[in-house]
Each structure stands twice: as structure tokens, then as C-alpha cells.
Fold these 3 entries.
Entry 1:
Amino acid sequence: MVDVFIGFGSNQGDSMRICRGALEEIGRHPLVRVTRVSSFYRTKPVGPVRQDWFVNGVVRCGTSLSPEELYALTSGIERVFGRRREVPWGPRTLDLDILSYGEVSVDLSWLKIPHPRLHERLFVLVPLVEIASDWVHPERKVSAKQLLDALRDEDHDQQVEPMEAP
């Protein structure tokens, strides 16, 4: 089993229910074992599109799926919850991002692992540090905690507020 982290988020519909449902769907797959789920966080959207705040978090799993199979699973779950990719960086019912897949790096046109912007996003790093502060980025060779500390030291407009445990 490979240790993987998946970021989840929603800002349309009943975001708490959608995120909980997505976590249940991930855990139902026979080749995926959910081992840890972060608290849920209310987060200010990042990017150029005006939209409602998100509910975000991170789930840690063990899987024997390949990165491509895991992507197919997460994309399918997004579709089950009504995800449409109409506006880049726009509102969404569900967003599932593979943040890391063991020590593996993937660089395909449609899939990049580790996630290419995870080190720039408080809404990823805060819940990641909550459940795995010692996780080490396979390319940057620094821990999640070090990435979070570095990002907090920068001048930015990101906001992350704790909500509740899943």
C-alpha cells in the first residue's frame, strides 16, 4: 500500500455534507483505506474568480491503486457530486486533488503529483500539518510543517479558519 494524501473542498451546495460524502466514497473503494482525516476548515477562495468561501481538508489513505487509477477514482467521485469544470478556478461542488502519492512524482499533461501548488496554499498545508506534520515533500525535501511556516512568513491574503472534525 502506498501512502497518499488527497485534498478535498467544496463551496457549492451543502459543502459539509458533500465533503463527508466524498470521504465515504473514497473509503468504499476496496483498494483504498482511509487512515486519517483532518478537521474541516472554512477557507477564503484563492484566484481571480469571486465566489463563496470553501470547506477544505485533507485525507490520508493507503492504496494499491496506481496514480492514474486514483485520479480516475477521484474524478469519478467529483462527477457523482455534480462537479463541472466550466470556469477555471471557479466555484465547485467538489474538488479532490491528489496532493502526494508516496515518494512518486508524476508529470503528465492531465496529472501532476505532488500537486504543483500545494506549497502555496494554506488551505492545503494547515490540514496536512494537522494530520502529518512530518510528511516530507518528495521534490522539495522539506516537511509539511516547514512548508507551512515558510508560507505563513510571506505576505499573503489567504485565510483558513477551523470548523469542526469530520
Entry 2:
Amino acid sequence: MDLKHKASIKFEVEAICKDTGARAGVLTTPHGVVKTPVFMPVGTNGTLKSLTLDQTLNCGAQIILGNSYHLYLRPGHELIKNFGGLHKFTTWNMPMLTDSGGFQVMSLSKLLKKTSDGVYFKDPKGGKTHFIGPARSMEIQNAIGADIIMAFDDFPPNPATYDQAKFSMERTHEFLEICVKNHKNSANQALFGIVQGSIYEDLRIESAKFVTNIDLPGYAIGGVAVGEDRETIEKISLFTANLLPYEKPRYLMGIGTPWDITHAIYAQIDMFDCVSPTRLARHGSFFLKQETPSIKRAQYSNDPLPLDPNCQCSTCLRYSRAYLHHIVRQKEMIGAILLSVHNVYTLINYANMARLAILAGRFKEFYETESSLRMNLKQL
């Protein structure tokens, strides 16, 4: 199907690892430049949970996500539009990406009915019935005004039978055509298509062929990291990434650990996001190399070290594990904030370190070091 789409972003590959194909690039958007590979923190309601936008910026964030499902329900996309879009509403003047709302509609709401046009669902807080489909998703995301917006997709349950995965993939393709036709702001917002197909390689091939046949500014890998084991995630993401155009940015949706990021970059993926850094922080956990220990553990009660002795985030430069142990155990709000700073910084920094390694021609060594560390931890 020939559906040409005017690009509002520009992507250039600056360097490639000759051993793995990992890429370092530059993504230019209407609100600024993003250096890839990049971890994108999730600001569900227009802000990261526990962090101000200044703190988010100080963690090194180049681009953040908004969740169109949540913003549609509250405060409403029309209100955001009246404020001049999410950039002005939040005062975040750097690049933004919004997801389509499809995943949240089908996983967080009381699902009432799925049709060929979209999904009827009940707001879990207010109880009101709503409908979101591909055309409606474009209306919502156009009003919100993010630099990059996502096509409304359908995804199967996990685990999914072959027939379930195929049905979901075909509906995703139908939805994509509707999204392209209903996208009203291609001059300022880049629409990314999403490749589905669950764990089935032939479906991934079919989906990638269909989605990339539509000339979009970028492409995402969906239906991954929704409950599969880590080995399956790695296999499918690597397989699917190689089906996507070299010259377009590649986005793996919903991954967020240091190893996830390292492997995604190894798989030649440029962009990734997850709610994990702030979610873990709210439960008292922090990133330490490739582990996520809880600061609540008694072993940290008298520990003078920072969370990670090698970390340069503002939390690690100032506070001890003992102090953080104390305030988290006392349920002080600042505990979740300080752990969130560390966790968000850590994932952003992992992507930055990988980028520098690619530019310096030593990504293979970087990857092998992280892989060895992961294997050693698995054997403990």
C-alpha cells in the first residue's frame, strides 16, 4: 500500500560497530536533537513519577514519554490542546513521544468490547465508558502534540497461540492504515508504525514487510517485554530489528534494565523506554550494575557507601546507603525521589556509555564486559 508520509524528523547514523552493527546516531526533531542510542524515561501523566522536570533534565534526559491514554482521561486532550500542547502545558521544551494508548486500554481498563474499529472500555477510576480506536488515537495524539507519536496497535495475550498472534498482527496492520489516513499534523509530528507477531518469526517477517512498506519516519518493535522470559525477549528483538530499514530509527518498546538496554543496542536498536526506574524506586529498589537490591535490607543500615560507588548522579554524589535506608524505611517521600534520580540516571547513562563505546570503536568490549557480568550473576 502506497501511503507516503511527510517526515518531521531526521535520522542520521554517525557510527557503527563493525562487529555487532550497533549504531550511534542523531535524531533531529522539532523540539531538539536526540543522540542515540537513547533511553527515554516515561512521564505517564506529563511528568515522571517522583521527579520534577528539572530533576529529569539533570538526570540527562533528552526526550521523555507521555501516555496518551492517561492524558486523554485526565486532564483531557482538548484541555492540553488549549494550552498549546503538552510541551507548553508541562513546560518541557525538549523532544517528547506519546504512545497510542492501545496497551493501556487493553491492560489497565475494564475491557468492554474489542471491534474492528477499536476498543470500548471503562475508566477504572471514574467508571465512564470510552472508545479509542486508531482514528481517535490520532486525534488525541495530534492534540497532545508530541514530536513522535505511535500508531494504535493490537496485541495478543501472553502466551499467545499462533492464531491469536496472527489475528492481532492483521488488525494492527488495518489500524496502521487508518492511523496514517487520520494523522493531521505530519509536518510537526512523526508517526511510527509498530511491528507485531508475538514470538513467531514468520509473523514478524510478515508484519515487518507490511509496516515498512508504508514510508514512515520510524518503526517500533511491539509485543515484546510483556511477560516473556528474557531469552525470548532478546531473540525476538534481535530478529525483528534486522527486518527494519537501516536508515530509519528503531524503537523497542517497554524495556528498562541495564542489561535490556545493552542487548537492545547490540541488536541495532536506537530507542527504548520503560517505567521501571521510578517504579522500582517507589518500592525501595535501585540499580547496582545488573542487580536491583532493596535499600531496605538490614545490610545497608550502617553502610557509608553511595548506592553505586561508580555512579555520578546527584544522589550518589551526596548520600550514603545508610541515610537512604533510613528515610526509605521511615517512608519519607524524599526516599523515592532520591532513588528515582539514581535509577533514571543509571539507564540514561548506560545508553550514553554504549554510544561513546560505539563512537570510540570499542562497543564489542563494552558488550562482552556486561555479558560476562550478567553470566556471573546468574551463576551465583
Entry 3:
Amino acid sequence: MKFQTITYSIPWNLFLITLGSIILGIGLKAIVIPNGMITGGFSGARILLFYCTPSFTPGIWYFILNIPVFILGWMFISKRFLFYSLYGAIILTLAIDFIWFEIPVKDLMLASLAGGTIIGAGAGIVFRSLGSAGGNDIISIILNQKFGIRIGTYTFGFNFVLFLFSFGMLATDLILYSMAMSYITSQVIEYFITLFNQRKMIFIISNNSRQIADEIMKKLKRGATFLKGEGAYSGREKEIILTIANTFQIKRIEEIAFTIDPDAFLITENTFNVLGKGFSKRKIY
């Protein structure tokens, strides 16, 4: 069975959501809450509510906040995504309420680094599934699919308002450390999302384009596309090679290109994601 098929299977998605939610719960319960900090998103909102009105546990507050969000997810995304997200919210709620230990990090800067890394890793693993852990994830996906609002833009706006309301309720130092932790979390999430998807887009300009492309397809089993170009100085028509490769294949492509044509011109660019045959499969929630 191909890995692209496995990623759509129910056991694989439940495994990712379970693992990610537990790691996320450890970061929240063992580091963030003991140090009096808050995170971004719904996790931060429920922690802030817990600090203000500790009538319910942080896990119960999270589940209460998710009720209207799940209704929106049912209406605007898909039932599959909703059920996965409901499962993720339940696991995260249980993880937060049943985790009893604390990670003894008392320095707030170290707590920000550790909390942001652990929470980002957990959330990033969940994001690799076809569901979520509830909360802001659902709202951001709805706004992105229906209105084209970028997920990062909405998340930044929500967190800005959340931290703004935190002033006066929490110490200023705690809020600033929490903001730093949220930034670390976002960077770690981004790393996990692109961990297996990032590829390199390579342009090769050469007078021996056909020979170079043949060698790339033969030795690396990678496809290539010819783009029509023209030299600005010489006025000669050129065939520009466009190919996609992973980071381990870049040096081999360079070796092929410059062995055939020492005067070749090679451009390498980062790509966020590549979808299609031989690469990642489009995620459908």
C-alpha cells in the first residue's frame, strides 16, 4: 500500500491525532499552566478562563468553547473532518485533565522555549492528519475555504486580541513570555507541516538541455519539463529545464548538469508544498 493511501486511512489519522493531542496536553498541563502562562488560540482562551473562573478544569473549558465551533465545522467543512476533530478535542481534554505531573522548569524563558516546542510538536502532528484538535483550527479552515482568509492572518488577529485582554489579568512579564512562546509554537508547527512535503524547484539553463533532462530522468527517476525561453543578449531560443527534487537529490542534479555543460546556469528555489503524482496527495478534509 502506498504511503499516500495510508495517510487517508482511519487508523493512521486516529494515531496522529491521539499522539499529537497527548503531546500538546503535556506541554499545556506540565509547563504552561504551572508557570501561569497562556498560549495562543482556544488553548489560551480556556487557560485564561480557568485563571479567572476556576469553576471548571481547563479541559472542560476547552470542550465548552468547542461546542459552537463543532456546529460550524459540521455545516461548512465535512462530517469526516468534524468527527476527527471531535475525537481530537476529547483526547486533548482527557490528556489535560489526567496529566498530573509537572516538568520542573521555573525560568520563564526556558519555559517559553520548552512549552512552545512541545506544544508546537503536538499541534504539528495533529495538523498532519485529516482532522484537528478543535478550537481555532476549525474556524481558520472555514475562513480560509469560504472567504480566502489566510490561516496565519486569522491566527495572528485572534492571538493579538487574546493577549490584549490578558493585560490587567496577568503580569506583563508573563504575557510577553507567552507571546514569545506562541511565536516558537507557530514556527515548530510550520516545521512539522512541511517536514515531508518541502521540495526544491530547480531551473537549468543550458545549450544541452535535452541531454541533461535525459540524465535526470534516467538516473534520478525524476520528471522534467521544458520551458521555452530566449537569451536577452544573444536572442537565441533556449529550452529551460524545470524539475522538482528533494534536498538529497540537489547535488546529484548539479553534478549531472555541470558534467554535461560546465557553462550551465542552475537556479534552486524552496517550495512550500508539491502536489501531484510522485509527490504529496492533495489533502481533502
